[in-house]
């Protein structure tokens, strides 16, 4: 399941450098449908209304050269997806993943 997120009311702040995603069980970098490497960017989500601002990672493929720690980001087509898989011991694992079509550095400074 993939659900869209309205990120217009959020401030998304990069809190680390982009890291490559690898195909499961290999050391091969994962490539997106656009033919570009897939990366995960650690972020802080401000403006969620929570008492403590949550941290997460956003998965994106494409150019993320402008994404540096401390930079406010604009997310294009941010979605949340659910996933299920079995680990090596046969136990079922589930989770959610945040994905964006594109991440751009904001012109305004982070708050």
Provide a descriptive summary of the structure in words.
It is a single chain. The protein is mainly β. The protein has strands at 2-4, 11-14, 19-20, 38-46, 55-61, 72-76, 79-86, 92-99, 102-105. The chain has a single domain (2-104), classed as OB fold (Dihydrolipoamide Acetyltransferase, E2P) (Beta Barrel), CATH 2.40.50.140. It is built from no helices and 9 strands. Strands 1, 2, 3, 4, 5, 6, 7, 8 and 9 form a 9-stranded mixed beta sheet that branches.
Q: Helix coverage percent of residues? A: under 10%
Look up the CATH topology: OB fold (Dihydrolipoamide Acetyltransferase, E2P)
Question: Which architecture would the CATH scheme give at its second level?
Answer: Beta Barrel
Average per-residue pLDDT, rounded, comes to 89
State the end-to-end CA separation.
32 Å
What is Rg? Answer: 15 Å
**Any idea what the CATH superfamily is called?**
Nucleic acid-binding proteins
Class by helix and strand content?
Answer: mainly beta
Task: Label the overall shape.
Answer: globular
Order of helices and strands: EEEEEEEEE
The biggest sheet, with number of strands, parallel, antiparallel or mixed sense and barrel status, is:
9 strands, mixed
Please give the structural blueprint:
Blueprint lengths: L1 E3 L6 E4 L4 E2 L17 E9 L8 E7 L10 E5 L2 E8 L5 E8 L2 E4 L6
Structural key phrases:
111 residues, OB fold (Dihydrolipoamide Acetyltransferase, E2P), mainly beta
């Amino acid at each position: 399941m993939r659900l869209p997120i309205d990120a217009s009311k959020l401030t998304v702040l990069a809190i680390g450098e982009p890291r490559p995603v690898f195909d499961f069980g290999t050391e091969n970098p994962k490539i997106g449908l656009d033919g570009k490497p897939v990366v995960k960017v650690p972020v802080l989500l401000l403006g969620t209304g929570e008492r403590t601002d949550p941290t997460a990672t956003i998965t994106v493929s494409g150019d993320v050269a402008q994404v540096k720690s401390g930079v406010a980001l604009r997310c294009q087509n941010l979605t949340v997806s659910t996933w299920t898989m079995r680990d090596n011991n046969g136990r079922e694992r589930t989770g959610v993943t945040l994905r964006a079509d594109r991440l751009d550095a904001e012109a305004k400074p982070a708050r």
